[in-house]
């Protein structure tokens, strides 16, 4: 096909494409850690210990899966495990849990402001919170401040 009749490419520039995929890969790597620290913080805030059995039940996974993930959290400095006790967050883990919760709440409020029903907004925010960039999150917050301060 001659160049003049070839349709213009819909692909973004190579660097832009690469950066987008890199951002998604990084979000996937951190998603598991973020889900676990957020849940551990929630269980502790609810007045309970964060036990493997409770974490497994809430995440809908097997206890060996939780055990493996907790080893990772401990190794990376997000959590502490004590024999015959539950799991506790380090100060870094507590901060990460707060940051994730704020992102989740911002995304959920934004979806609600768009008219998404509450159940869908809650579930969708659970996935989006891990992938939203700081710039997009700031835009969500600015939108909410102007258009929907009550949400």
UniProtKB/TrEMBL annotation:
Q: Kindly provide the name given to this protein in its UniProt entry.
A: Transcriptional regulator MntR
PROSITE patterns tied to this protein: HTH_DTXR (PS50944)
The record describes its quaternary structure and partners as: Homodimer.
- One family name in Pfam for this protein: Fe_dep_repress
Cross-referenced InterPro entries:
DtxR_MntR_Metal-Reg, Fe_dep_repressor, Fe_dep_repressor_sf, HTH_DTXR, HTH_MarR-typ, Iron_dep_repressor, WH-like_DNA-bd_sf, WH_DNA-bd_sf
Task: Please provide the record's keywords in A-Z order.
Answer: Activator, Cytoplasm, DNA-binding, Manganese, Repressor, Transcription, Transcription regulation
- Major location (coarse): cytoplasm
The record's subcellular locations are:
Cytoplasm
**What is a GO molecular function of this protein?**
transition metal ion binding
What this chain does, per the entry, is described as: In the presence of manganese, represses expression of mntH and mntS. Up-regulates expression of mntP.
Concerning its family, UniProt says: Belongs to the DtxR/MntR family.
Name the species this protein comes from.
Stenotrophomonas lacuserhaii
Q: Name one GO cellular component term.
A: cytoplasm
Sequence ranges assigned to domain HTH dtxR-type in this UniProt record? 29-90
Q: Which NCBIfam families does this UniProt record tie to the protein? A: PRK11050.1
